[in-house]
Amino acid sequence: MELYRQGDSQFWTADFVVDGRRIRKSTKQTKKSAAMEVAMTFYRQAQQKQNPTRKRPALLFEFAEKKFLPFIRESSLDADTKRYYETGWRLLSETPARDWRMDQIKGSQAELLSFPASGANANCGLRTLRRMLSLALDWEFIDRKPRIRLRKEVERTAVFDAEMEKRFLEKAPQPLRDVFLISHDAGLRPDEVILMRWENVLWNKNLIFVPDGKTENAKRYVPLSDRVRELLRARQAVTKSPWVFPSNRKKKTHISYFSVAKHFSAVRKEAKIPKGVVLYSARHSFATDMLDRTGNIVLVGKMLGHRSVTTTQRYLHPAMKGLAELVNERNAMRAQQGNC
């Protein structure tokens, strides 16, 4: 145990080692005898694994904004991984976890967190939380890391048929209605719709430009249909915001995905739409319809912003009714050949 004054400071600084770790902290005392008493308190706390140099445990959003995100952005991780963690924090930041104290997070709390859409979204947020806690432990912000369990991911199989779409649009309020239509007609992810800016609407080319997104391939052009053009013109006429879907509560930003998802759940119940159909299903409907009409899975994949055809195949749910006609045609042709 050593006590010394740093520079011109009038306070004594305690300097000692516990379990191979050097600890230095000002005692805020001018008398050496009083400083020694404080220093011994520090020492006892350190022996009990209570780091006396640690400041008040940070809230999760403080750690994210001041430590985690800057670290991720400056790291050597690939662009997709960085984007994944950015998305994960965006999802977490709109849950109660945002205001959790780092040293009090428990795995049971994380299991109760609610995320929009699929299990994949939930796991994006939970994996990000795992990474944040690992770094917090490494940087000695916390003494332990709780176990965070991931959710089961169920492949989406549902799409909107014409009748479901009609019932949904009859009940859907704004801005949910417009978010749905853009996703359904352009194949955009719901969060890509919410992030739309007017500068990305290319009116003369009947296109919408997506500057970035979930993956590197998310940067792309998608079609601007007549009904989407009409709803966008109506929105543009009543706003001066750069965002297509500006927030009413917060200036200079866009609406929350969670608010839209909450309205969707209520409308789905009212319109008697199956639970397997989610807002993201509008994007699946777009993919299925485009494949039916173009037969070009590569083109559809590009419109969806996918890196590989394998990913696109998981999104497509082509109608099965056409297959029966093909089998009937084959059987008729063979029967005719057999009669020759």
Walk me through what this model shows.
The chain has 340 residues and is mainly α. The protein folds into three domains: 2-47; 60-138; 162-321, Orthogonal Bundle (hpI Integrase, Chain A). The chain contains 14 helices and six strands. The strands form two sheets. The protein has a three-stranded antiparallel beta sheet with strand order 1-2-3, covered by helices on one side. A three-stranded antiparallel beta sheet has the order 4-5-6. Strand 4 (201-202) and strand 5 form a beta hairpin. The longest helix has 20 residues, at 119-138. The mean pLDDT is 85.
**Largest sheet, if any?**
3 strands, antiparallel
User: Gap between N and C termini, in Å?
Assistant: 105 Å
Oligomeric state of this protein: single chain
Instruction: Report mean pLDDT, rounded to a whole number.
Output: 85
CATH class of the largest domain: Mainly Alpha
Describe this structure in a few short sentences.
The protein is mainly α and 340 residues long. It has 3 domains: 2-47; 60-138; 162-321, Intergrase catalytic core (hpI Integrase, Chain A).
What key phrases describe this protein's structure?
3-stranded antiparallel beta sheet; 50% helix; 340 residues; 14 helices; elongated; mainly alpha; 8% strand; hpI Integrase, Chain A
